[in-house]
Amino acid sequence: MNSISQTAKIMQNVSIGFYSVIGDEVTIGSNVSIGNNVTIYPGTKIGDNVYIESNAVVGRQPRPAKTSTIKMTEPLAPLEIGSGTTIGAGAVLYAGTVLGSCCLIGDSAVVRERCTIGDYVIVGTGSIVENSVDIGQKTKIQSGSYITAYTTIGKNCFIAPMVTTTNDNFMGRTEDRFKFIKGAVIHNGARVGGGAILLPGVVIGEESFIAAGSVMTKDALPRKVYKGVPGREFRPVPEKEMLKEEEK
């Protein structure tokens, strides 16, 4: 048995599995498939041709801990999901975020509040995108990656499995840290290899390549390969590996 608010607006050809809950003022487009035991929080806007797999939690408001750096004074705007997007089983998406069209949010992935995610973005299985993150179109974030709050990722980037970004050099020990919290900035076309770590505020230049396992303590120049601990410039990125004009 489902619980569907009378104020929800559901368009044509929508299928809803068992034990799902659809809140007040939810808008669901045409040709949408919703699995079993899905919760869609009030006000969420879902475009046409969207797939939401079983056990997903969609559009919840954040409830930070009393010691959290995030302070909530009023509810955030409802979550928006663009047409053609797929939300994996057990994924959790928060209010205040906008997902573009034709995205894929993998199974058990988490996308927090105040994020902007462009069209054709992939967030892999088990990955976490924290609050206030911007991700450009056609970027791929592979399984198990951690994208910390206040990170910016450009278009056509590749973030390999288990990449970790950080934003706090003080790790919560001083009040001064609030002035310096800043995520990485990853420019268009950059690639970050598996298991790499980006320290707070590091800038990864356009089309640069960060080798697997590197620890980036300083900025990476555009179109250069970096590797090591700490990451150091190794060589230019070969011209044949650059994005073609039609791919940008």
Stated plainly, the CATH topology of the largest domain is called UDP N-Acetylglucosamine Acyltransferase, domain 1
Strand order of the largest sheet: 3-6-9-12-15-18-21-24-27-30-32-33
Mean pLDDT: 95
- The chain-level structural class is mainly beta
Radius of gyration, whole Å: 19 Å
What is the H level of CATH, i.e. the homologous superfamily of the largest domain? Hexapeptide repeat proteins
Q: What does the largest sheet look like? A: 12 strands, mixed
Terminal Cα separation, in Å? Answer: 47 Å
Low-confidence stretches: none
CATH architecture of the largest domain: 3 Solenoid
Which strand-content bin applies to the residues?
A: 25-35%
Kindly state the percentage of residues in helix. Answer: under 10%
What's the CATH first level of the largest domain? Mainly Beta
Number of domains: 2
Number of helices: 1
- In total, the number of strands is 33
Shape: globular
Describe the structure.
The chain is mainly beta. Helix content is 2%, strand content 30%. It is built from 1 helix and 33 strands. It has a 12-stranded mixed β-sheet with strand order 3-6-9-12-15-18-21-24-27-30-32-33, with no helix packed on it. The longest helix is centred in the C-terminal third of the chain and has 4 residues, at 177-180. It is globular.
How would you describe this structure in keywords?
about 250 residues, UDP N-Acetylglucosamine Acyltransferase, domain 1, twelve-stranded mixed sheet, ten-stranded parallel sheet, 1 helix, 33 strands, globular
